[in-house]
Amino acid sequence: MQQAWDQAWVNARPALDSIRDSLSQRTSSDPRIMRVGQLDSELLDQELVNILQEPLSKSFALVNSSLKARFEPELALLIQLTLYKLSIWNLGASYGAKLQDLRYTVPQTSACSLTRALIQSCLTALLTKLRSASGLPRRTLLAHGTLTIIVPYLHNRLRTHALSHAWPDAPSNDRRRKAWDILARLESIHMTCGLISFVAFLWDGRHRTIADRILGMRLEPSRRLVKRDVSYEFMNRQMVWHAFTEFLLFLLPLVSARAIRRGLFRFISRVKTSANLSSVKKVITGRDSTAEKVQTAGRAAAKQGKYWALPRDQCAICAENASFSLNLSEPENAFTSLTVAPTRSMEVSDVGISAQESEPTSSTAPTHPINTPYITSCGHIYCYHCLTERMMRSADDGVDESGWECLRCEEGVRASERWAGDIAQEYDGSDWDGDGLSSISEFESGTESFSGYSISDTE
Asked: Which of 97, 114, 281, 358 qualifies as a FRET site for 407, CA 20 to 30 Å off?
């Protein structure tokens, strides 16, 4: 059995050696082309120039405000030349490319195009004493720096000079206008070539810019295992925060702050009312009749609104609006929040609890008279305009299905009708029992309806 295995190994060994030799002679495949890394490196280089240029521009602005606008192109040129010398000339890659683990390479076997040969021949005399520390051809690097830094600076200066001297507004036969037309035509050609070059870059991923394509320079990974030194954690946090703020900007206009505030105030008032009733029950002790009086007074107090003691020939809504007025020329509106708003007066004793309400007097004119009186479903009279505004606002808020709360009794107002009688005479008798007001469904005809609330004119 052992001899059979040995014979099989001897027979297979020549075939294994031939396979090993063929694998060793095979050229390695091209490294993976990363288009995103090349574009990111260009953006990082631009951001680095802006970061270095901003404090210098602010310094010039502090010395003289005109220096910033006058020498800003020269300042950017100086920064770009310095970065080019310290990065591409010495290291063979810009700082953005190094963060992406890329470096420039110039294929030796690539055929020089006519434009590349012309540029190299023009700069041969100037490059005899220059050497490149990155290992790249010095003529190629100088031509690359000229095309990427010097030419854009000259174009920017020429365009600024032409615009400041009104070359576009010159006559058509003027040489300045002709020079401007030539400049505009060259810009259009450059933009078209840039678009074609970028589409070709997206297709093959070899040459990022026109200058790289002319000179045959390519950005390739410096190692076979590409490892980018850029962390996108901050970018991810920024994107999450940006999406969260956009969601808040979309959501906040849909939330009614008035409805939330009213609901909160209503909850607080109910808590205070229940606390007051519990304290009254703890203090008062005695016979069963006294306890019944306390419960009756507590229920009556629970139905008393903020303006329950306001004279009944005055509009409680007008009084509330006046309490927020800052017009000091009118004595009735100045600091009325301290004087107009009534306070509950309850006298608690072993015998019982009594509440005193102020009655309208005929000797003085009412401070807040009722104009176009309308009577609500709870039996209180308000101005038509005030009542309509409050009911429509309550309908828009949609806080409570019971409707707007009356300022005198805190009951929900679902409907109202025009009141044609005398307000003072009406309140002199017994309390209004609501017999003169029909249900909401009976006012469908001849009624102004506001989202479930009705205000009818029965005059």
From this structure: 281
pLDDT digits (tens, 9 = 90+) for 131-163: 566 778 888 899 999 999 999 999 999 999 999
Rounded to 5 degrees, φ, ψ at 216 are 75, 25
C-alpha torsion sign, points 323, 259, 372, 424: negative
Q: Return d(Cα 262, Cα 301) in angstroms, integer.
A: 20
The Cα 442–Cα 420 span in angstroms is 19
Structural contact between residues 316 and 307, judged by C-beta atoms closer than 8 angstroms: yes
Strand partners, 417: 375, 456
Secondary structure (3-state) at 223 = coil
List the one residue out of 240, 243, 351 whose CA is nearest residue 294. Answer: 351
Contact 367/332 with Cβ under 8 angstroms? yes
What angle do the packed helices 257-283 and 384-397 form, to 10 degrees?
100
Question: In whole angstroms, what is the distance from residue 416 CA to residue 373 CA?
Answer: 10
The sheet that has 447-450: what strands, in order across it?
381-383, 373-376, 415-418, 453-456, 447-450
In this structure, what token pair is assigned to residue 292? Answer: 């019944």
Report yes or no: 395 and 451 within 8 Å, Cβ to Cβ: yes
Beta-carbon count within 10 A of 18 CB: 10
Q: E strand or H helix at 235, and its extent?
A: helix 233-251
Residue 389 CB partners (closer than 8 Å, separation 6+): none
What is the reported pTM?
A: 0.46
The vertex-132 CA angle with 129 and 133, nearest 5°, equals: 130
Half-sphere exposure of 278 (CA within 13 A, CB side): 6
Distance of alpha carbon 176 from its chain centroid, rounded?
47
pLDDT per position as a tens digit, 58-68: 888 888 878 77
The identity of residue 77, as a single letter, is: L
- In sequence order, which residues have a C-beta less than 8 Å from that of residue 430 and are 6 or more positions away? none
Dihedral Cα 233, 235, 236, 241, nearest 10 deg: 130
DSSP three-state, residue 214: helix
CA distance 108 to 250: 58
